[in-house]
Amino acid sequence: MQETTDDPIAALKAILGPSGWVGAGDSAPYATDIMGPGGECLLVARPASTDEVAATVRLCARHGIAIVPQGGNSNVCRMAVPLDGQAAVILSLTRMNRILGIDPASSTATVEAGVLMQTLQEAALAGGRVFAPDWGARGTATVGGAVATNGGGLNVLRYGTTREQVLGLEVVLADGTIWNGLRSLIKDNSGYDLKHLFIGSEGTLGIITRLVFRLHPDQPVTQSMMAVLDDMARLNEFFDMARGIGGEHLVAFELMPGMGVEKALERYPDLRRPLGTRGEWYLLLRFAGLDSVEEPMMRLFEQGFEAGILSDAVLSSSVAQERNLWEIREQMIPYQYFAMPSLKWDVSVPRGRIVEFLDRAGQIVHALRPDAICYAAGHVGDGNIHYTVFVPADSPPAMNDRICTEVDGLIWQMQGSIVAEHGVGAMFAERMRRQKSDVEYAMMRQIKQSLDPDGLMNPGKLLQRN
Ligand SMILES: Cc1cc2nc3c(=O)[nH]c(=O)nc-3n(C[C@H](O)[C@H](O)[C@H](O)COP(=O)(O)OP(=O)(O)OC[C@H]3O[C@@H](n4cnc5c(N)ncnc54)[C@H](O)[C@@H]3O)c2cc1C
């Protein structure tokens, strides 16, 4: 892996070997994300080992070349492509896709960063274990990306965020040094727990190459209920009921808008309408256990119905029915349904204040733009709602900025966050700055400065460029 030429790109190609890179001319699939093409990509490096990652990073550091780490590029906040004004090497982890071992005795999995989430879920399940992170992009997102974004998803209520699944990490630092923190200890108070710096750091501090995850015992019997939420104001009361009755069996508690359900059923003819009754809001809950969870689920429905919170519900009675319910949930992504400019938030507020947030945000938006469409769906059991406002194409930028500023202000006033689980990327970097106090932002900058003094790791993401 010796550098043999003054041309850094040629040297990188030599380090990586013929199947380890994609040239700039063919880089569009890597350099484009959900928002469209990114900035200039000098080369897509596709290393096959930690040593190759380290050699790539060392060479880039020596030549002052920025690096954009990339997993499955499934992020939704412009995180994993170069930005305009700073050409970069994209470092794709997708060739590092081996499951290195699953240890049933310790209930852990050791994997390379480019393993797909779904691949690890399936491997864990084959051994009677659950790899907890799960969301719609499971077939595209890598475990490295999940950790670098501290992804949330559908199982947070039961198992916590991705952060809580990580026991150890191996990271290539910005100068190419390899930090081996690949431990599988549950307890280790031997100083600062450095892995947490890299979890959720969006590739701005180093490149995660290998990981040790905690696995959980499988709860093989699952059942889901989709219910018409008649009294939205009592959402939290019903959540408490579900927690009380379901206890640890309650795995997921999701809110879906009636408008989204109708659009999904219209657009995807393979989806079956689960309920005769239509509502403005639906809840989708999953219970899981070793044995049947039907009895507590029925009891929950009856209590919710008698209390006047729910007006109708369906309990899945087969795997296919349950899958249908969750496929509807996964089609709650609104961009496919509205061809209008959008403003978006991934809102986190204290769980009991979700309804208040939706009411107040709706009032703010409609006072400014009565014809805007407010769309909300998400993991309300975690106090997290994906909130999108669609505005007519002729809505002036100043008006859209004002809507953004006022809704951001509401979220902060409610002690919330505008970036609950999807992360910051370039899209929210400027707005996130305003969410943080000067003290907190300065600490973040100091961490960045000490681990990446030349600012070459994913510049312009998470933190604003200097
Ligand atoms: C349909 C759909 C549904 C989604 N649902 C959810 C959801 O419910 N919850 C949720 O949290 N997210 C969700 N996402 C967003 C996305 O899937 C997550 O952000 C995911 O964690 C990204 O993983 P990735 O491998 O695609 O990473 P990428 O998109 O490639 O990268 C994401 C960030 O991580 C960095 N990165 C990637 N790999 C590494 C590495 N090995 N080392 C260091 N940095 C790295 C990148 O530089 C970038 O900053 C959804 C996306 C889609 C398309």
UniProtKB/TrEMBL annotation:
<dbReference type="InterPro" id="IPR016171">
    <property type="entry name" value="Vanillyl_alc_oxidase_C-sub2"/>
</dbReference>
<keyword id="KW-0285">Flavoprotein</keyword>
<dbReference type="InterPro" id="IPR016164">
    <property type="entry name" value="FAD-linked_Oxase-like_C"/>
</dbReference>
<dbReference type="GO" id="GO:0003824">
    <property type="term" value="F:catalytic activity"/>
</dbReference>
<dbReference type="GO" id="GO:0022904">
    <property type="term" value="P:respiratory electron transport chain"/>
</dbReference>
<dbReference type="InterPro" id="IPR016169">
    <property type="entry name" value="FAD-bd_PCMH_sub2"/>
</dbReference>
<dbReference type="InterPro" id="IPR036318">
    <property type="entry name" value="FAD-bd_PCMH-like_sf"/>
</dbReference>
<keyword id="KW-0274">FAD</keyword>
<comment type="similarity">
    <text>Belongs to the FAD-binding oxidoreductase/transferase type 4 family.</text>
</comment>
<dbReference type="Pfam" id="PF02913">
    <property type="entry name" value="FAD-oxidase_C"/>
</dbReference>
<dbReference type="InterPro" id="IPR006094">
    <property type="entry name" value="Oxid_FAD_bind_N"/>
</dbReference>
<dbReference type="Pfam" id="PF01565">
    <property type="entry name" value="FAD_binding_4"/>
</dbReference>
<dbReference type="InterPro" id="IPR016167">
    <property type="entry name" value="FAD-bd_PCMH_sub1"/>
</dbReference>
<protein>
    <submittedName>
        <fullName>FAD/FMN-containing dehydrogenase</fullName>
    </submittedName>
</protein>
<dbReference type="InterPro" id="IPR051264">
    <property type="entry name" value="FAD-oxidored/transferase_4"/>
</dbReference>
<feature type="domain" description="FAD-binding PCMH-type">
    <location>
        <begin position="35"/>
        <end position="218"/>
    </location>
</feature>
<dbReference type="InterPro" id="IPR004113">
    <property type="entry name" value="FAD-bd_oxidored_4_C"/>
</dbReference>
<dbReference type="GO" id="GO:0071949">
    <property type="term" value="F:FAD binding"/>
</dbReference>
<dbReference type="InterPro" id="IPR016166">
    <property type="entry name" value="FAD-bd_PCMH"/>
</dbReference>
